[in-house]
Amino acid sequence: MIYTLFYSPGSAAMVVRILLDEIGAKYELIEVPISKTEPRDPAHLAHNPNGWVPALAWDGGSLYEAAAITVYLCDRYPEAGLGPAPSDSTRPLFLQTLVYFSNTVQTAFQQYYYPERFAEHSETHAGTQKQACRRLRDVWQVVDAQIGDNSWVLGSTFSALDIYMHMLTTWLKPQAGHPDIYELPNVARIAAKVANRPRVDHAYTE
């Protein structure tokens, strides 16, 4: 099977690209714009009518939303060991954390980077971004506390959660009021280990 990944560097598509590399799947990258002012490729819109990335397509199917694709790939390729099986005792925590990353942490980033989605009038965008910075600090502290002394997000085992979390840390801008990663020692420790993985380093330095 050969996948097609609709992708933009630095976006939420990074986690999917790295997972495909970790699995050893064959895929092609189609780089698409993420600026709201640029037109979308009809082929991209056919797989995600929102025009967002990532969107993953294959012969006979497609899927969008980074968290959904993460679950799909982990379950489709259990031999890669990137996620617990449905019967595993860590599966509930895996799903809970993945959805928290997607629905809570990512939403706080969206509020900062796309304030127009949350406030209609431009004069209120600065206040919306300030709220987002406070929210980012709160939600990242929850993640840091959950990790505690664990070797990896899920405990003693490396998983897709670690790749996903590392991706989210690359969006932090302390100069803009976001928390500095070093305020989050457990997050920083794991993110540094993930960054040193060859496939992660390749994806971010290519």
Topology, please?
Blueprint: E1 2-7, H1 13-23, E2 26-31, H2 42-47, E3 55-58, E4 61-64, H3 66-76, H4 91-113, H5 125-147, H6 160-169, H7 185-195, H8 198-205
Helix pairs in contact: 1-3, 1-6, 1-8, 4-5, 4-6, 6-7
Helical region count? 8
DSSP strand tally:
4
Low-confidence stretches: none
CATH class of the largest domain, named: Mainly Alpha
Distance between the termini: 24 Å
Structural class computed from helices and strand pairing: alpha+beta
Largest sheet, if any? 4 strands, mixed
> What do we call the CATH topology of the largest domain?
Glutathione S-transferase Yfyf (Class Pi), Chain A, domain 2
Percent of residues in beta strands:
5-15%
Give the C-alpha Rg: 17 Å
In CATH, the architecture of the largest domain is Up-down Bundle
Q: In sequence order, what are the helices and strands, one letter per element?
A: EHEHEEHHHHHH
Strand order of the largest sheet: 2-1-3-4
Percent range for helical residues? Answer: 40-55%
Number of domains: 2
Quaternary arrangement of the chains shown? Answer: single chain
Q: Please, what is the average pLDDT? A: 95
Overall shape: globular
Q: Which key terms come to mind for this protein?
A:
globular; 2 domains; alpha+beta; Glutathione S-transferase Yfyf (Class Pi), Chain A, domain 2; 206 residues; 4-stranded mixed β-sheet; Glutaredoxin; 4 strands; 8 helices
